[in-house]
């Protein structure tokens, strides 16, 4: 996340799309649902950043505690996390990940190309890929 935050700060024209993809079981799904539910209170990104920066396994209880610490209405979050629209979003994200061959998270796609955190200087790799897409477009439709 630090490299992505740095890129977002340096490039105000960058479009970043975050997709929740809970792959670590029920706790992961609950945290993803709570983060998506936080959109209804205008705090998705803030809660997402808190959860992604936390150490250890993020359980539903830990996600709710983080939301409460932010001043979010946790009763509303609990209701909203079971919204059929959130279920549909998670299903669509899973189908997209399957189609792209995603094997784990975090997963970064710039245009139509994967950029891996293992690519040495991740910030430089992201920056180079963004510049390439802007100059040359995507290899496939994106």
Structure, explained:
- The chain is mostly helical and 142 residues long.
- The protein has a domain at 17-102: Glutaredoxin, CATH 3.40.30.10.
- 56% of the residues lie in helices and 4% in strands.
- A two-stranded antiparallel sheet has the order 1-2.
- The protein is globular and about 45 Å long.
- InterPro entries: DSBA-like_thioredoxin_dom, Thioredoxin-like_sf.
Strand order of the largest sheet: 1-2
What's the end-to-end separation, in Å? 23 Å
Overall spatial form = globular
**What proportion of the residues form beta strands (DSSP E)?**
under 5%
Give the CATH topology of the domain at 17-102.
Answer: Glutaredoxin
CATH class type of the domain at 17-102: Alpha Beta
**Sequence stretches where pLDDT stays below 50 over 5 or more residues:** none
Number of strands: 2
Question: From N to C, what is the helix and strand string?
Answer: HHHHHHEEH
Please count the helical segments.
7
- In CATH terms, the superfamily of the domain at 17-102 is Glutaredoxin
User: Residue share in helices?
Assistant: 55-70%
Structural class: mainly alpha
Q: Give me the oligomer status.
A: single chain
Task: Chart the SSEs and their pairings.
Blueprint: H1 2-10, H2 26-37, H3 44-53, H4 60-69, H5 74-80, H6 84-100, E1 108-110, E2 113-115, H7 122-136
Antiparallel strand pairs: 1-2
Summarize the structure.
The protein is 56% helix and 4% strand. With 142 residues, the protein is mainly alpha-helical. It has a domain at 17-102: Glutaredoxin (3-Layer(aba) Sandwich), CATH 3.40.30.
């Amino acid at each position: 996340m630090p490299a992505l935050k740095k890129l977002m700060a340096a490039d105000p024209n960058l479009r970043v799309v975050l997709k929740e993809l809970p792959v670590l079981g029920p706790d992961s799904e609950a945290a993803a649902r709570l983060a998506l539910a936080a959109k209804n209170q205008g705090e998705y990104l803030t809660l997402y950043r808190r959860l992604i920066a936390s150490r250890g396994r993020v359980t539903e209880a830990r996600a709710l505690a983080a939301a409460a610490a932010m001043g979010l209405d946790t009763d509303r979050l609990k209701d909203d996390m079971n919204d059929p629209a959130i279920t549909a979003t998670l299903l669509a994200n899973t189908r997209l990940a399957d189609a792209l061959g995603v094997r784990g998270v975090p997963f970064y796609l710039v245009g139509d190309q994967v950029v891996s955190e293992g690519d040495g200087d991740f910030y430089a790799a992201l920056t180079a890929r963004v510049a390439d897409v802007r100059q040359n477009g995507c290899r496939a439709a994106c």
